[in-house]
What we know:
Blueprint: H1 17-35, E1 39-40, E2 46-48, H2 49-53, H3 61-66, E3 68-71, E4 77-80, H4 85-94, E5 103-112, E6 124-134, H5 138-154, E7 162-167, H6 171-187, H7 194-202, H8 213-219, H9 231-246, E8 252-253, E9 265-272, E10 281-287, H10 291-294, E11 301-308, H11 309-315, E12 326-330, H12 336-348, E13 353-354, H13 361-371, E14 375-379, E15 383-387, E16 393-396, H14 401-405
Parallel strand pairs: 1-5, 7-8, 12-13, 12-14
Antiparallel strand pairs: 2-4, 3-4, 5-6, 6-11, 7-9, 9-10, 10-11, 14-15, 15-16
The structure holds adenosine-5'-triphosphate and magnesium ion (MG).
Amino acid sequence: MAPALQPVRGTRDLIGEDAARYAHVVATARRVSALYGFAEWQTPIFEDTRVFSRTLGETSDVVTKEMYTFEDRGGDSVTLRPEGTAGVCRALITNGLTQTLPQKVFYAGPMFRYERPQKGRYRQFHQIGIELLGPSVPLADAEVIAAGWQILNELGIAQDVVLNINTLGDAESRANYRAALVEYFTRHEASLSADSKMRLDKNPLRILDSKDEGDQALVVDAPVIYAHLTESAAAFYNELKAALTAFGVLFTENPRIVRGLDYYNHTAFEFVTTALGAQGTVLAGGRYDGLVEQMGGPNVAGIGWGAGIERLSMLIAAPGQASVPVAVIPMNDSFSGPALDVLKSLREAGVSAETAYSGNAKKRLERANKSGAKFAVLVGEDIKLKNLADGAQQDVALADLPGLLLQ
Ligand code: ATP
Ligand code: MG
């Protein structure tokens, strides 16, 4: 026998309860997003590499280490999407939607990053996310965050997470802050990791997001942005906090949140949990007002978040079992045809029904009991509905069956 083929490292199958958890997270997020007026988009799983390399920032971990990039047979460089925002902004532009704003987008699907696999960290993982494109007002940020909060709440995990918010200010605030950071980290340059030495030139804010322990020790005493905010950036941040409070969303201010990608300004936020070890961020995002323009579109503001479905799935309670199909059983081979008629009419009436594909009636009934089905329909000269819990059975007319089973 040939050796059994294995899944690619960092990928996994969703089967049984894992599949049910995945479906429950997506269905909940889809339903709640619609309550806020977000509509679902599907963008391709792979894009021109530049969609990501130009936007996520040349010093981000995703671009420097994690992208699945390859040349296709035509010699074009394509990349499996590592996140959802860049593709949505590309789609906004190429579909001419920058003229019809706001656009409120929900998405769900696979993302790909070449990372060291561990609990809650995979090479193919899945995200839900929303993007609100157009308005650059704090109310938009608050709504996007409130939608995320309501999704976590309806998944039953709001009590396990804390919302951290921060502001990255506008361009002027960031320039001021950048200077303060460069001054501070240059004094400590010898203790910085190699990656962060590079960031010091290119994007010193990124050092605040470093996972290196030595860097993190320096970050503790690094200057915070609040003293460097312009008046209007400070006002934006204050209005956001007031709107969150109005929506009843509790938050903690955390000046260390800068997010890993380059395109954020003003609002940055993360919902974090201590329940998943090092993989504590479950939902994260921010405002990215320059991104669409950077991709060659007009100046369109945006705010959004992405959340890892695997991490959410680990936090939620097991979803309730879907009901087991009714078992339709011919009493002997001569009733196979009538049994198919019963199956067909039950399914058309919206009743979930199946038949064991072989075996005598007794065997099939045993299997139905094992499957956890609540009812069997025995098809012989008459049609009988059998309650598998107590064994009671009654003669029924085919036309009455769906009514009895849908109760
Ligand atoms: P981390 O700090 O854990 O690496 P990140 O900052 O890279 O996260 P984002 O790019 O903001 O994460 O992605 C949003 C969410 O997607 C994360 O909060 C997390 O829930 C999920 N996520 C990111 N990378 C992975 C992965 N490799 N496997 C599973 N989920 C992931
Ligand atoms: Mg990461």
